[in-house]
Specification:
Helix content is 86%, strand content 0%. It is an all-alpha fold. The longest helix is centred in the middle third of the chain and has 33 residues. The chain is elongated. The N and C termini lie close together (5 Å). Keywords: Cytoplasm, Phosphate transport, Transport. Plays a role in the regulation of phosphate uptake.
Length: 208
């Protein structure tokens, strides 16, 4: 699940920057796989809860995985939404627009957050999980400044108004990806507060 969602975000970045519509279409096509993974993980957790009746750390771990699973699926939704936007574009987005809105930087930060959140989960590293919060602040700052930048660009390039409005939605969605990643690390920290995670099979399933 984690690997699939990470690749969806990375492929969305490539599709946007290189105006690769076939790749954007591939991201859209794989959205059903993301949904399928979410369902399988939910079912595995529900079965574990029903059969094992876990307590304390085990229960916290399963609850955390359910919430992490949900947030990963939402990140996949945002990647899919951006890919659909790319498919509807008539031409590549100007490099200047990409640069001034710091979209490449946002994608890079999201990838780093995804990597560190995944590693924090696998290694049971609360300190690494907390490092993700700082990166989310960077996304929030870029998002906060985006409207002003868009207004400036519309004045300079009125013929690009439609594209600029659509690209603003990309910024918004990447900021939301960051929010969901912070939700994930909050769950990781929650699961580690009382005791180390113990059930490797669930960790392996969600990390795939």
């Amino acid at each position: 699940m984690w690997g699939l969602v990470s690749s969806q975000v990375d492929n969305t970045r490539i599709a946007l920057l290189e105006f690769d519509k076939p790749l954007a279409n591939e991201v859209s096509a794989k959205e059903k796989r993301v949904d399928g993974f979410e369902l399988k993980i939910d079912e595995a957790c529900e079965t574990f809860l029903a059969l094992q009746n876990p307590f304390a750390a085990d229960l916290r771990m399963v609850i955390a995985i359910l919430k992490i699973n949900y947030n990963l699926e939402r990140i996949g939704d945002f990647a899919n939404a951006i890919s659909l936007l790319i498919e509807d574009l008539d031409e590549p987005v100007d490099e200047e627009i990409i640069a001034r809105l710091r979209i490449t930087e946002m994608f890079h930060t999201c990838s780093l957050m995804m990597r560190d959140a995944s590693n924090a989960f696998i290694k049971e590293d609360g300190k690494l999980a907390r490092s993700v919060f700082k990166m989310d602040k960077e996304l929030n700052t870029i998002n906060k400044n985006a409207v002003e930048t868009i207004c400036e660009l519309i004045k300079e390039k009125p013929e690009k108004t439609r594209v600029l409005v659509e690209i603003l939605s990309v910024v918004r969605r990447l900021e939301r990806v960051g929010d969901h990643l912070t939700n994930i690390v909050e769950e990781i920290i929650f699961s580690l507060e009382a005791k180390k995670l113990t059930h490797a099979k669930f960790k392996k399933k969600i990390s795939e």
